[in-house]
Amino acid sequence: MSLTARGGAAYYVRAMATKKDARIGELESLIRLHQDLYYNGQPEISDADFDALWDELAELDPGNPIFAAVGSDGAEGWPKARHVMPMGSQEKASDPESFLAWCAKVGHAEYLVQYKLDGASLELQYEGGELARAVTRGDGEIGDDISPNARRMGGVLARLPEAFTGGVRGEVLMPRSVHEGKYADKANCRNAANGLMKRKDGSGSEDLVVVCYDAAGTVPASGELFPGGGAAPFADEAGKMSWLERMGFQVSPQRCFSRPEDVVDYRARVMDRRPGLPYDIDGLVVKGREIDPADLARARPEKQIAFKFSLEEAISTLRDIEWSESGANYTPIGIVDPVRLAGTTVQRANLVNTNLIGAMGLRIGSRVIMTKRGEIIPKIEGLVDNPPGTMAIEVPSACSCGSRLVDEGTRLFCPNPACPKKLRHRIEKWLSVLDVRDFGGVIVGKLLDSGRLRSIAGLYGLEAAELAEYDRMGEILARKILRNLAAKSEVSLARFIAGFDIEGIGELIAEKAIGAGFDSLEKLRGAGAEALAVVDGLGDITAATIVKGLSELGPEMDELLATGAVRILPPAATGPFAGKSFCFTGELKTLKRGEAEALVRSLGGQPKPSVTKGLSYLVTNDPSSGSEKNKKAASYGVGIIGEEDFLRMAGKA
Ligand SMILES: [Zn+2]
């Protein structure tokens, strides 16, 4: 390879890494944003869309601190070791419909089905038939070498009858009987197993069992995997399981079906049988018979899937209500006795509004059914009963600004337009809608508290030197923040409106009004509620909200525009993309995602962050991938096009 080519390759790798980092940052902030929105009772995306973000981040950056909040398996003090078989993430289906869709896509001739064991993953690494290391999942590539503990666990073989070199994957489990007898203080078996297996003194490891389900041999010299080929001791997935058994490992039962429907039936039977099993399981793992090394090398293998059981439920007791404040709104958050759900301890759940509390008949002391939506967002699904001694839930009556709160049932809010909390929320909303990086809520709070900031317009009068004083951020960061702010000086009318945080009026709603001909701020402000109410998709209430909001915020909008720092872009709804919407997924070759989205806007179209019904096109360079977005687009009948098609439509190719 020539030097130039090397330089080019290095540049390419660097560029890709930067792109990936950018996407990771974007996903982090999206996830945080939507978690906040959810907790404030204003979810903007569906649970499934949220899951898609979560999964994408898990794939790009399994070690991201966001996941630490949910439960990490990091342990101090153990040597680190690299996996022989990297553990990527897994395709998931939690209902028969999405499972059958996956089957239709992969079209396996046979479906090999195993229990999905609910413990902690462990890779046993063998060299010439001797156990060399036992490595926890870690970040999927590097984990903790807990060999001394593993050697004390049931099912771990120190020596194999064959001189095998490679990895054997298993799940560390605590049998339910052991949990009940000895570790009943631990919330569940998985929790107990996770804790015990990493204890430095090794005590308790003898109470754990490793059940194995995967293996791959390596070429001794290079360490390269040859699953299913060359000198590997098995030719296909079924052969792999019999080899594991022959070696003496404990395995979970494997069934083989030729029809996907039979797998669905089997799942239903296993769900019924589940309470009687010796171990916890949380679904089935389904794969084809053949071993496909290329697929296994993917960050998320597509030819196997975790077919999970339906939602896990738990019962807890409602102890208190916290009223979470966001802008003008007060949202009830239920505080419950800690309970284990889908792998984490849950103590808080959004109760959305006072209507919901009333409809479920909840009181302080109620026993409630909890679930976790999308495995992350805890929810109180309903009331079990109200034991004696429960108390009515008190709804707060006054805002911190002194105004009486208004309880509309669907929303509890402070009606005072000058409420300081509203201003803070509005400024944060402006920064978030414009996607101004690094300008966080903490600094906004300090600027407001000190009286330096009294409106959105005030943001544009800030000097780097004074900003640097706040939060001791220093001048370099202060300048960067102001540069980020200045970079977003041109906004579409819809974004401008959405940035002013009128209750329930986001870009989508604003675009509906704009699309109906109210395509300048003047026209919108001149429009009466009757005229807006007949716009498709608006209606009386929304129209009235827009009119009231625009009138209340008129002076602040004028003040902002008068600074000259922000300009509303003229409408482009007449362009070739008028009425069309585009969602981009994966990496594009010739454009950054932001550039592609700007191109869509400039041609009168709308870029969309997720696949929804009514989307015109999903743009992807990997139309055959089994990503959630692709699947969803296909199920909605959304056109899936490549980058070149997109560029051609945009008149750029
Ligand atoms: Zn108030």
The CATH homologous superfamily name of the largest domain equals DNA ligase/mRNA capping enzyme
Q: Alpha-carbon distance between the termini?
A: 32 Å
CATH C-level label of the largest domain: Alpha Beta
- The appropriate CATH architecture of the largest domain is 2-Layer Sandwich
Q: Helicity, in percent?
A: 25-40%
Number-wise, the strands total: 25
Total tally of structural domains: 5
Mean pLDDT: 84
The ligands found in this model are:
zinc ion
| Structure classification | alpha+beta
Indicate the low-confidence ranges by residue numbers. Answer: 1-15, 68-75
**C-alpha Rg (nearest Å):** 28 Å
How can the largest sheet be summarized?
Answer: 7 strands, antiparallel
Can you give a write-up of this model?
It is a single chain. Helix 1 runs antiparallel to helix 2 (47-60), helix 12 runs antiparallel to helix 17 and helix 17 packs across helix 18 (507-515). The chain has 24 helices and 25 strands. It is α+β, with helices and mostly antiparallel strands. It folds into five domains: 22-72, Helix Hairpins; 74-308, D-amino Acid Aminotransferase, Chain A, domain 1, CATH 3.30.470; 313-411, Nucleic acid-binding proteins (OB fold (Dihydrolipoamide Acetyltransferase, E2P), Beta Barrel); 420-568, 5' to 3' exonuclease, C-terminal subdomain (DNA polymerase, domain 1); 581-649, BRCT domain (Rossmann fold). Strands 13, 14, 15, 16, 17, 18 and 19 form a seven-stranded antiparallel β-sheet that branches. A five-stranded mixed β-sheet has the order 2-12-11-3-10, with helices on both faces.
